[in-house]
Amino acid sequence: MKNKVYPYNESMKSHLALSLGLGVWIFIFLFFIEPFELGRFSLSLKLFLISVYCIIEAVSYIIPLQYQKIVIKQQDNWYYKNEFIFILLLVLVGFIFNYSFYWIAVPHQTKAYSIPLFIELIYGPAILIVLPFVGISRVLISQKREEVIKEKEIPEKVTIQGEGKNEFTKLKLVQLVYVKSADNYVEVYYVEENTLHQKVLRGKISKIHKDFPELIKTHRSYLINPYHFKEFKTESDKFYSLLDYGVKVPVSRTFKKAVIEHCN
After folding, report:
1. How far apart are CA 179 and CA 86, in angstroms?
2. What is the per-residue DSSP string for 215-253?
3. Structural domain spans, the chain
4. Which residue of 19, 27, 172, 178 is 20 to 30 Å from 237, comparing CA positions?
5. Alpha helix locations (H) across the chain?
């Protein structure tokens, strides 16, 4: 799990929007629900306290983004373990800011909460409000990023030509799932109306790979479209690439390293 890719969005603009949304969400929740006995304060003081906490949580989200930026730059990907560390940093930074504000804002003689008590009664319940919003929002903006990337990558229809003049199939590259070599023929597997179809053409898989270098060679007899890649799987000491529509394609030792680099 720790080495499994986690959806991410490297756009700082998207994350700043998320931090703003987080601040708005906290403001609405604290103002109307009035947890932590906020109702005992005057309206002006209540608005001040809520506004400060909104800013604190927004900033607490922005600061760990530097960790995300560094990691993605170094490894060009984001894994579950990185997301876990990011959440821990968010919780830690948020606690430091929140407790510091509590220590400064509350008169010394009225301070009632030690750090353990503050975590139990104030910060613990508060972070349970924050984390679901952050977790869901991060996944949503990541999915939006992937949709935009896929839309940009989808070209007009392409023609896969066989050796015969009238042997060809025309489709959008995004429809192509994989190609399999079978002696002097190639089997082209593509999706149409959410169903996998097959088209057999006379020709060589090397010619198709030359015409469409964006396809990935996993085996001397297979090409896959990375658009439909899902995950890798090992069975009986054999390595496979799992694609959409339940497709399982073998990955040979010769191409294994290159395939992993392309698909991760």
Report:
1. 39
2. SEEEETTEEE-GGGEEEEEEETTEEEEEEGGG-EEEE-H
3. 12-152, 157-263
4. 178
5. 12-33, 43-62, 65-75, 80-105, 115-118, 124-153, 205-211, 253-263
Render each residue's pLDDT in the chain as its tens digit; 264 residues: 556 778 888 888 899 999 999 999 999 988 888 777 777 788 898 899 899 999 999 999 999 999 999 988 787 678 899 999 999 999 999 999 999 988 887 665 566 788 898 899 889 998 998 999 999 999 998 887 666 655 555 556 788 888 887 888 889 888 999 999 988 899 999 998 888 999 999 999 999 999 999 999 999 999 999 999 999 999 988 999 999 989 999 999 999 998 998 887
Q: Tell me the residue type at 96.
A: I
User: 198: which 2 tokens?
Assistant: 């097959």
* Separation CA 245–CA 237 (nearest Å): 23
Dihedral sign, CA of 92, 66, 144, 4? negative
What type of residue is 8?
Answer: Y
219 touches 249 (CB < 8 A):
yes
